[in-house]
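Hey all, quick one. A colleague (J.T.) asked me to put the manganese (II) ion job into the tracker so the inputs and the structure tokens live in one place instead of scattered across chat threads. No bug as far as I know, just bookkeeping. Sequence used:
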Amino acid sequence: MTSPAPAGTGPTEADWAAAVAAVRGLPATARVLLICHVNPDGDALGSMLGFGLGLRRLGVRQLQATFPGPPEVPESFRWLPGIELLVPQDEAYPDPDLVICFDAASESRLGDLVDRLAGSGAALVLDHHASNTRFGGIHLVDPHAAATSVVAEELLRRLGVALDAEIATGLYVALSTDTGSFRFEATTPAVHAMAGRLLATGIRPGEISRRIYDTRPFGAVRLFGEVLLRARLEPAAAAGHGLVWTYATRDDLARHDQPAYVLEALIDSVRCTAEADVACVVKQVSDREWAVSLRSKGAVDVSAVAVALGGGGHRFAAGFTGRGTVDEVVASIRAELSGALLAG
Ligand code: 5GP
Ligand code: MN
């Protein structure tokens, strides 16, 4: 167990040393399990698989990657190098020698995989959420990192693993998706420097971007049209900063024959609304359960809203699970926003 670093600061040298020792000290027969958060996004999958390929280069043979819930990877990520490391959660080693967790801020994001943390020899947590609850044994949590893959790249460097095109692809997908394709404020000089190192391996950014952002089935295009048409604008919400929101039901998905993950991209078409600082998409999970995505352009700290409603995230991108009807879920958000949780 490494001593906790003060909130807001990145890993200490002792944290890095402990992480390097945990990997380097593995016997040849060690079983290593990589896990990430439920409904894995580009950062979760890209940093996990990119790092996994790095472990392969180090000679780790017994290596699996998994995530909680149905073993369905969004179509846009199925081509990622290292995807063959993935196994359904039920087939993951029950008692691995080392668990490495990617992009999860808390145990609540790990579903049934929480038991693997308890049952493992050592648990290493790589993350970049300021709200990380430090649920492992060794923590590499850097709230200033634009993506978890920033932390993963640094650990690979300290392990002496050279970047190659396969490793770089996952790390690049992670960096690109968590910076909104290099558009968000998190896009620092360090982010571009890392992107430069990754591109220097020969990976093709145009092709990667087309696959992860600009490819979707026609059914999803029509579904988006329908869901966007019912968007509501509330200019007075969030103390006058404005709220735009919409929702999608399981019936909407069924009518257009689409899987739930296609809705992950919907928030980007909603949050461009000029008249609202806060954007919200409410996605039906079961009868009275909804996965809620929140985004802010900068005036409102939506992570505070999400935390108040049982979720979490970053200041300008957060989420939670809402219960009840759509109107009840949106009413709860409106109420939290009227508390004017303005970002400092
Ligand atoms: P998204 O809207 O893309 O699903 O999530 C945006 C961010 O909010 C994620 O990076 C994640 O940190 C956080 N987030 C989304 N849903 C939840 C949730 O149900 N619980 C928690 N703790 N965080 C969430
Ligand atoms: Mn992330």
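Adding what we noticed when we looked at it: Residues 42-57 form the longest helix (16 residues). Residues 217 and 298 are 32 Å apart (CA to CA).
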